[in-house]
Amino acid sequence: MKQSQDFMAADYPTNDGSGVINCEAPSNIALVKYWGKTAVQIPANPSVSFTLNHSKTVTALYYKYLENASPEVSFDLIFEGKFNEAFKPKIRKFFELVETYVPFVKHYHFEIHTHNTFPHSSGIASSASSMGALAFGLIQLEKKLNPELSESFLNQKASFLARLGSGSACRSIEGPLVVWGKHAQVKESSDLFGVKPALEIHPVFSDYQDTILLIDIGEKSVSSSQGHQLMHGHPFAQNRFAQAHDQLSKLLIALEIGDLDQFIKITESEALTLHAMMMTSQPYFILMKPETLRVIEKVWAFRKETAVPLCFTLDAGANVHLLYPKANKKTVLDFIQSELLIFCKNNAFIDDEVGSGAKLL
Ligand code: PMV
Question: Which of 33, 70, 121, 243 falls between 20 and 30 A from 287, CA-CA?
Answer without folding.
Answer: 243
